[in-house]
């Protein structure tokens, strides 16, 4: 078999055989296929895509390029949740404890921030003492004991994806629907859960900028999951505006705590309730209607908050921060971004909002950058709202004054204003299937 022939075949839009896909994924991981040939192959997939069977085989090989986690030491049905990325997305911090409070099991491996999108692990690590890298045995014990543990993905989960993602990043092939589907699902399949809930984000702060592409991505990922024998459901959510009011790390943890107390922003709370209900439904704990009631009750009774505190304690974190979020200290510098004339917010560029947070220090400019847990943005008004001159649109936080000044200039590009009323944004756009 020759890589040249495989590239040529894909370039012409033909379907690759299982043997050809195995040859190219395994060969690339072993270093036998050079980056330049894999780059050409990725670009061929970008234009010619992959059919259902090819994509399932490709994803399966990527998953099996490293450890396939066996979660059978944890009792019950394990349900995973994954978001395709967003700005202000702290849903795991709320949803995972709520599911555990209602009797579900969540053994979750999460990621760090990627580009302008934040990552759950960076957010969790803003809690003093919190460990996100623990032994497999401890991870299993915590889930068996309290129902939930969230840790960082180990280096051996889908190493093929790690190598391919780095290459896609520099060859303009990240925004390919089959490649995104394979990248995400390879990690989900390797992480071992029985069922998968996917949050496919759509809009200016997501990889998928329109509903049509998001539906195509949702369909591809659900088909990959089902072909691998894992029941998979996708919920398409709006990322044309940031999720909730906080974008950063410790300020997002505080918002998650407030949401578990029933005081969270309504858009964020709605999404969390729906995800937690679907996870209970997939975990066969309750039907959807009952699940929705159970989740609301877990907020009202404080049981969801107790689960978050228990998980933080079990992973070495200081649980007093969960009950007393005022202990999280604010960044040294802050500044308000103020409305300069009366008008409606007609549009937000949510990707730019995420990039503003990165400039402030909440994300990484380079792979080696350190996260500033206190940096970020609090957003008070979003698309569809009428705002008067002099009102505060957002507050920016940073530990470095120069970064704050740079971000103050950058955030101007986030908002488009007008005199015409526009409808506020719907949070949930569609379900697949
Ligand atoms: N997230 C991933 O893990 N992979 C992609 O390709 C895009 C988003």
Order of strands across the main sheet: 1-4-5-13
User: What's the overall average pLDDT, rounded?
Assistant: 96
Q: Tally of extended strands?
A: 13
Multimerization state: single chain
Question: Percent of residues in helical segments?
Answer: 40-55%
Please state the structural category.
alpha/beta
Unreliable residue runs: none
Taking all Cα atoms into account, the compactness measure Rg is 22 Å
Termini separation comes to: 38 Å
Backbone shape: globular
Note the run of SSEs as H and E.
HHHHEHEHHEHHEHEEHHHHHEEHEEEHEE
Strand content: 15-25%
Number of alpha- plus pi-helical segments: 17
Main sheet overview: 4 strands, mixed
**Cofactors, ions and other ligands in the entry:** uracil
List keywords for this structure.
433 residues; alpha/beta; four-stranded mixed β-sheet; four-stranded antiparallel β-sheet; binds uracil
Describe the structure.
Helix 10 links the parallel strand 4 (195-202) and strand 5 (231-238). Helix content is 45%, strand content 16%. The longest helix is centred in the middle third of the chain and has 17 residues, at 211-227. The chain has a 4-stranded mixed β-sheet, with helices on both faces. A 4-stranded antiparallel β-sheet has the order 6-9-11-7. The chain is built from 17 helices and 13 strands. The radius of gyration is 22 Å and the shape is globular. It is an alpha/beta fold and 433 residues long. The structure holds uracil. Uracil is lined by residues 84-85, 165, 174, 180, 183-184, 207.
